[in-house]
Amino acid sequence: MAGTDFQTAVPVTTAAAASAGARPVILRCTGIERSFGGLKALKGVDVEVHEGEIFGLVGPNGSGKTTMVNVMTGFYPPNAGRVELFGRDITGTAPHRVAKQGVARTFQNLALFKGMSVLDNILVGRHTHMRPSSLATLFYWVWAQREELAHRCVVEEIIDFMQLQDIRDEPVDVIPMGLQKRVELARALVAEPRFLILDEPMAGMNQEEKEYIARFILDARDERGVTILLIEHHMDVVTALCDRVAVLSYGEVIAEGEPHATIADPAVVTAYLGARAAARHAGITVQQAGQHTGAGA
Ligand SMILES: Nc1ncnc2c1ncn2[C@@H]1O[C@H](COP(=O)(O)OP(=O)(O)OP(=O)(O)O)[C@@H](O)[C@H]1O
């Protein structure tokens, strides 16, 4: 499953990556359950993300990745389980309060404001740092101007960091998809998050665009100290970028650990390919595969 081209293009052996596992846990999810009607989307999921790591959350379509992220960020309260962020219980906390604690995210489907410029879309990402008091703004206009300037400085710095200078004034809907994804990442970064959740940031991108965005993700961790949870379907990307991964299948964690070993785990191969194809892949019989992975044929 793992490719090699991407690995060569984006070599990742930083001190931050090497020591990530030894650092404090910043997100701890314990026994998370979440149902939609009769469908159990999450069945007791445990996940820990350490400070400074890029943690991959992978799994086949419908395995529960986005639901898990929605529970972490307060969009869905869990039916059972506990979410701890930076050592505090945030289970069921509203999304805007979770965001204020230093969490930003991008979405699987682009969520940019059409008709607005790249610059204005990025500026929206500062909202968690803005104090919306019109009275204060009226009476303390000098202070308000100073605050506006401070927001602009952060936005300009991120525009430089993400190399978006050339398109800063373009309406966001006329730029290519790869650049729109980059704008979305920039909008998340201007919030100055400590923890960033990226839901398929490379969906629909060609190889060159993927390599570009991968570099920005690594720089966000290495230069800005952001801890990252990455949902991604491209396994070459996962093995190149992530320090650790957890694999979900039907709402359960079926494997976790170092990326190469984890995605080569027979249970993971079976979850992606099905028992028959996985057995062919491994050169063993379906019955042997079932015994090996605990999965039926
Ligand atoms: N709001 C919802 N209402 C009903 N069912 C839902 C809802 N959200 C998710 N589900 C179901 O929960 C299961 C997990 O979905 P989820 O989107 O979390 O999976 P995923 O791993 O993110 O999939 P993908 O890789 O396709 O994005 C699926 O069966 C999905 O249909």
TrEMBL record:
KW GTP-binding (keyword) present: no
Transmembrane segments: none
Domain of life per record: Bacteria
SUPFAM superfamilies: P-loop containing nucleoside triphosphate hydrolases
UniProt cross-references to InterPro entries, sorted A to Z: AAA+_ATPase, ABC_AA/LPS_Transport, ABC_transporter-like_ATP-bd, P-loop_NTPase
GO molecular function terms noted in the UniProt entry: ATP binding; ATP hydrolysis activity
ABC transporter domain residues: 27-275
Gene Ontology annotations for the cellular component aspect, listed alphabetically: plasma membrane
Keywords assigned by UniProt, alphabetized: ATP-binding, Nucleotide-binding, Transport
Listed name of the protein: Branched-chain amino acid transport system ATP-binding protein
Species of origin: Paracoccus alkenifer
